[in-house]
Amino acid sequence: SSGINAEYGVVFIDIPEVDTDVDAGDEIASVESVKAVGDVSSPIGGIVKAVNEALSDTPTLINSSPEDQAWIAEIEISDVSVLDNLMDKAAYDAFLLQG
Q: CA dist 38 to 1, 35, 75, 81, 85, Å?
């Protein structure tokens, strides 16, 4: 997946449908900005149980509220042991600083 820089401004997001079965690594959304299109991959496998319909009306939430109002989907995890392999926020922030 590719990140979309905030300066470009998100203009559209294609969100998944509820009850979609996804595997880890599957594309679950596509985010389009003025200058780029990026895919969002699911970090886990499971079934999409809810989607953030607000993103359809206000895709700019991806830039203005990425950790609060811009969640994309809630996924019911098929194998909770995969959570052991994911980074928490502190580890992810450190990863981003490595460049």
A: 6, 10, 20, 28, 24
Q: For residues 49-67, b (16+ Cβ closer than 10 Å) or e, as one string? A: eebbeebeebbbbbbeeee
The tokens describing 34, both together, are: 């003025």
Nearest to 77 by CA among 41, 35, 38, 49: 49
Write the pLDDT tens digit of every residue in 33-85: 988 999 999 999 999 999 999 999 999 999 899 889 999 999 999 999 999 99
Report the C-alpha gap between 92 and 49 in whole angstroms: 25
